[in-house]
Amino acid sequence: MSLNFFSYVWHHSRREQLIVLIFVVASLPFYWWSLDVPKRIVNEAIQGNVFKHGEAGARLFDYSLSLPDFLGGATWQITDGLLLAQVPYLFALSMVFLVLTLINGWFKYVINIRKGVLGERMLRRLRFELFELVMRFRPEDVRTTKSAEVTSMIKDEVEPIGGFFGEAFITPAFLGTQAITAMAFILAQNMWLGTLSLSLILVQGVVIPYLRREQIRLGRMRQIESRRLAGRIGEMIDAAPALHVFGVALYSAAEIGQRLGTLFHIRLQLYRRKFAVKFLNNLLSQLTPFIFYTLGGYLALKGRLDIGQLVAVIAAYRDLPGPIKELIDWDQQRADVTVKYEQVVGAFYKDTLLPPDPVREPEPIPRDAPITIVGLRVMNGRGLVQIDRMSAAIGRPGRVALVGAAGSGRDILPKVLGRQITDYQGSVTIGGHEVGAMSDREASAVMLYASGEPFIMSGSIRDNLCLALRRALPVPDEPKDADARYWREEALATNNPIVSPDADWIDYHASGLSGPADLDAAIIQALRTVRGYDDIFRVGLTSKLGDDLGEDLAERLLGARGAIYARYEQLGLASYVETFQPERFNANATIGENLLFGVSIGKRFEAEKLAHDPFVRSIIAAEALVAPLTNIGLKMVETVAEAFQGLAADNPLRERYSFIDEAELSELWPQLQGTWQRGQRRQFSPELRDKLVGYALMYVEPRHRLSLIDEHLVARVLRARGSFRDFLPAKDAGEIEFYDPERLMPAATIRDNLLFGRIRYGKMHARDKLLDAAHAVLDELGLESFVVSKGLEQDAGPGGRLLSVQQRVTVHLARALLRQPDILILDDALSSFGASEAHMIMENIFEAMAGRTVIVAQSNDDDLDAFDLVLTFEGAKLAGAERKGSPSGTQAQEGRPVAPVREPQPQEAVK
Amino acid sequence: MTIEDEVRSLQKFRMFRDVEGAKLKLLAMISDRVVFQPGEVIYAQGDASDAVYIVLDGQFKVSLVTAHGVIDFAEHVRGVLLGEAGVLCDQNRMATITAETPVVALRVDREPFLQLLKESRPFNHAVVRELGRQIMELNNICAQLVERLPKGTPAVDAGHKVALTATHEQVH
């Protein structure tokens, strides 16, 4: 990518630029004529110069072609033209003028459009190239790059450059020739006036750019400052939770305020400059007509200049400052844009970039090619040695443990192997290929690095799982229609990829799959390996059933409800579930659920809003439930206020009463106490009462255990349930789906649809047993994959924010395993699991990776029995390499003598 | 049985004598009351340590799965805290606990339990004290066992583990 703006533009758009230039040149004669015609209208038609001698008519449109004298001076008459009287003559010339105006307008239109398209194309190309460059930054450079700054550069800063692409060559050509034409015209009319205005223009052309130099400097400052602002704001938003924790919002606000102040100051200076220059510019332009009027008028009065000429000169001049001014503007813009361009491209220009992906598939590296490390030395940015002259040979396949304290070489080596650190001395090769110099494509074909920081992108869980698989090279579709052709041609014109992201990018072959049909099974297998399958299954169970089921599926799910219940009876688990029955109060559901006896479809009957709904309120009042519910709510608030005293608002211990908001409570509490002091316990304000009733509707006796439900209340709630159903206005019927054993509820979760009841509290392991049994039944009915696919469809949220930490790591690991890499590098990837869980996952991974290589960073006290090779680090030094017989029977290692504890010198270690 | 009753039961335990009433209420509020019938397994060796039990009433049996079969380690055990070691050390259950009489317990999930330890210093002390008491009791048991051995028996190997590390399959 060229650092010079003009060579970049010329290189990528010369064809287009030339085409537009041809248009520009073609437009010039018309422009000349459009200047010439007004003169003739005034002189010949209005003042009647051609009719002076009493002619009845004058000839118009008579064109002849004559050769210059030195070629013989022959003349050919092309047309004889028309003989016209004065008035028709005037009209004819005016019509010519109109036509010329239209032609000029058309030229302007075409040129502008072409320029715009050209600019947009170049902008697309530039943005894409910049993005490609960022993607080729070395990991070290990426870490020091602020994403918001890059975003601001690619998105905003190049925008004005985009507008200028079209102007780069065409505008000076167009305006320049126009100005020269106009200038030549003026000169042709009158030497004096011409020279005079020319000299004024020259003054303008010299003084103003000089004045603008400061403006450019300020502009550059503004650009850098606003980029920093963007970076800082992005950083602060990312760190907002921490800033809240530290309570330093004011400090950060002060910093942003100051940055805005600096920016304001720069902009203010910029405006002052800009308008000062504009003022001067205008003044100089106005000065010329002043000369024309005085001097030209004088000459005309003296008879040295005819009036028509003067009018034409003034008309030409009126057009002249336009091009000249624009030309000066162009020059200003040029300076501005080239600075911007160099700034942006320079910021993207690093000494070393990762090699671009090769066009052809690189040679695969054999599965048993060893990893050879010779004299590896890694220093961090501050010159601290992180790995000191290390040499080792890692045979493949094998299970390799890197052991040491946190921060020692065991944390660094996996990053070198996984190409997270590419700036090292010495050599690290796999099958003769230097790791740091491999292209992504080459490296990702042989190995996969997984850190403890999972990168989850927005999209569904399935999208995230398949992300690592999307490395096929799909053949671009042949465009089917004009629209597709247009998309493809535009992409080609700007060097953008022509394959749509919607194409099937999944490389089935590399992951040992035969095609899309195998994918689900492979995903399930990978999830099982990292012990995340049950979790996803549960996510699936708790996701909404939805109403896009086929009839057959719906039938089977309804069947599963019965089958699961039968299984529970059979296993003696039936008493663990309290099913929904129209005539009975479900003690394990909230009072609100008991009242509604259905699933809210819209927003109206959502649990939190229930107490505020006029219809629900009227039902509660009609069944005399207000007082008892208020009492329940009151008791809950009292309990919460006592027990949660001094707990932070987001303390996880509040979870069970999370519906009583801390902020709300602190607002409520004084009101309650005030009411008590006035001795009017029964007389709460309506809002307060609604709140308390709202809490009461969330009450579940066995969960909250405040002993607040008696048979009177139960009877009243059941009555209210009946009247709710009976009196529900017909227009609200779509807001709720009543429980019905014979029907599915699309708005409820799959679990609720299958259990059709609530799991009883107070039975140990009930939930697990019930879900396991349900799982087994679903399995038998072939509905498991439906539930899992529902789970996989769940949205992960931006950065995976909708997933738990564990789920994120699980997805991260599962997608690594889905790829089935020859070498899997786990750099602290299991750190968020408990020790025993991590151990079990590790065993599963070993099993899944049998015959391939796993490299794991372990801490000192982990169990190392399962590994074939243990590299021990003490600080930056490799302190020992222990080869073990392979306990798991990895054939390649068997029978090998145990290597000496200390790794031999480099020379010996290389093959 | 309401939270109030549970708080009263908790207050009767010596280990909680210094914990303020509000925190005991909090403990009751974040827990589930569970009942185990005689013979019902409270948790099995090798299970994930997902919760701590505060036994309000009942007796239980502790057994170990070893290479030589199942050893019933201790019977008629009465204890207040159950399963806290596994939660604190992030280890799977080291033994199987089976109810002998109906056992009524408060089940506190792992996370809330750890959170409560951070939240309340007296509660933290109570747990530490209880752990200390358990160690002293175990020392006493071990001393009694050693006394029964013939003279000259070598000291036990602290690194040797008797309990089988139950794998996932064995749990189900």
Automatic annotation (TrEMBL), chain A:
Region (Disordered): 880-911
One of the record's GO molecular function terms: ATP binding
Principal location class: membrane
TM spans (from-to): 18-35, 89-111, 164-186, 192-211, 279-301
Database matches in InterPro entries: ABC1_TM_dom, ABC1_TM_sf, ABC_transporter-like_ATP-bd, P-loop_NTPase, Type_1_exporter
Domain ABC transmembrane type-1 intervals: 77-329
Keyword Ligase: no
One Pfam family this sequence matches: ABC_membrane
Residues annotated as domain ABC transporter: 634-900
Localization terms from the record: Cell membrane
Gene3D superfamilies: ABC transporter type 1, transmembrane domain, P-loop containing nucleotide triphosphate hydrolases
Membrane topology: Multi-pass membrane protein
GO CC terms in record: plasma membrane
Name recorded for this polypeptide: Putative ABC transport system ATP-binding protein
Organism expressing this protein natively: Ancylobacter tetraedralis
Automatic annotation (TrEMBL), chain B:
SMART domains documented for this protein: cNMP (SM00100)
GO molecular function: voltage-gated potassium channel activity
Pfam families reported in the protein's UniProt record: cNMP_binding
All residue ranges annotated as the Cyclic nucleotide-binding domain in the record: 15-134
SUPFAM superfamilies: cAMP-binding domain-like (SSF51206)
Matches recorded under InterPro entries: cNMP-bd_dom, cNMP-bd_dom_sf, KAT/AKT, RmlC-like_jellyroll
Name of this protein: CRP-like cAMP-binding protein
